[in-house]
Amino acid sequence: MSAAPAPVLYESHCHTPLCKHAVGDPEEYCAFALLRGLRGIIFTCHAPLPNGWSADVRMTDAEFDTYVAMVDRARAAYAGRLDVRLGLESDFFPGIEPWLEKLHRRAPLHHVLGSVHYQIGVYRERYFTGDVFAYQQTYYEHLALAAESGLFDTLSHPDLVKNESPIDWHFPRIRPHIEKALDRIAAAGVAMELNTSGMLKSLPEMNPGQAQLRLMHERAIPVVLGADAHRPDRVADRYGQALDNLQAAGYQEVNVFLDRRRHPIPLEQARASLLYRR
Questions:
Q1: For 134, which of 34, 107, 224, 278 is 20 to 30 Å away at the CA?
Q2: Domain count, the chain
Q3: pTM surpassing 0.90?
Q4: What is the pLDDT of residues 221-248, one digit of tens each?
């Protein structure tokens, strides 16, 4: 009887109650990571913004040390069973770079996600003019700038803006702007995420969808998996489907970041290691 394949995958995008829209202690997320057959989990809760901006959906600056301590506690509880790491999901828009440079030095981070959250108030006030197509273009321009900033390992849910108004999402029209952004992202050497939580959004497909995923593959942009789990039972949710999507787009590997360094994993090895293949 052959031995079970060794676990190799990580949950690379998950949250804690400090963001005020997630539930469950880190230890509960760790328990589900073991059930899914993962090697580890990287907590990437929503980073604070200056001036208390958007504090209703993220930790405050004063809570950052609490966040680090929460992850340390989970790491100790699961020592020898699960590799528990500290990461961060940081919002990007032009001008935020000095704040993030200081923030990212406050603790040893293993994976830093860069997110453009079109829906948060401070971003929307600055960049939404009422023209949805222009907003989509701005989103991709800011994704490219995020990659070029050197602040991030991975760009998370990198077509999220399609949920601003699904009826106004016409891929052939936005494609030239996506391609220009992807060219810059590829040149910067930053990875992009395949985020499975898109299946739960107003336009129910992963972020990104297959058309953009193929464009990313054409440019050899590495991909990291994340479920964007805001509750424990969503850890590694739909990873099997995500691996199928990657293969259909032409990819042969998926990636994980540890110590801010990218580690590729062959798709077949990743698929075989999962205990929960949905």
A1: 224
A2: 1
A3: yes
A4: 999 999 999 999 999 999 999 999 999 9
Judge whether 2 lies within some domain. no
Token pair of 227 as six digits: 């479920």
What count of other Cβ atoms lies within 10 Å of the Cβ of residue 40? 21
* Domain contains 209: yes
- CA dist 278 and 163 (Å) reads 24
* Residue 98, CA distances (Å) to 52, 92, 95, 110, 122 in order: 16, 11, 7, 20, 17
* Buried/exposed code over 123-137 (b: 16+ C-beta within 10 A; e: otherwise): beeebeeeeeeebbb
Kindly report the CATH number assigned to the domain that includes residue 231: 3.20.20.140
198 occurs within a structural domain: yes
> Band of the pLDDT at 1, cuts 50, 70, 90?
very low
| Alpha-carbon span 7 to 5, nearest angstrom | 6
Tell whether 5 is covered by a domain: no
- The b/e string for 213-230 (b: 16+ C-beta within 10 A; e otherwise) is bebbbeeebbbbbbbbbb
